[in-house]
Amino acid sequence: MEEAVRWRVFHRQVQDIKARNADTSPEELQALIDEAVQEVRAEKRQRKRLTTMDGRSD
Q1: Residue 29 near residue 21 (C-beta atoms within 8 A)
Q2: Taking the CA of residue 8 as centre, how many other CA atoms within 13 Å lie in the half-sphere pointing to its CB?
Q3: Which end of the chain has fewer CB atoms at under 10 Å, N or C?
Q4: How many CB atoms neighbour CB 21 within 10 A?
Q5: Could you tell me the CA-to-CA distances from 17 to 5, 8, 43, 45 in Å, in that order?
Q6: Are 57 and 51 in contact (CB under 8 A)?
Q7: For range 28-37, the mean pLDDT
């Protein structure tokens, strides 16, 4: 039962995102995705550097 609820919530979120971005060009969407990925990777590298300096590892 929980899996069905999770699937429904996920499916609804996907539909909402598609509707929100319907008027956005594919190029603009790709640029937004690329920017978000770069930010996440930069944050991950920064966390890794900080934990390495502390002598800890994740």
Answers
A1: yes
A2: 5
A3: N
A4: 13
A5: 18, 14, 24, 28
A6: yes
A7: 97
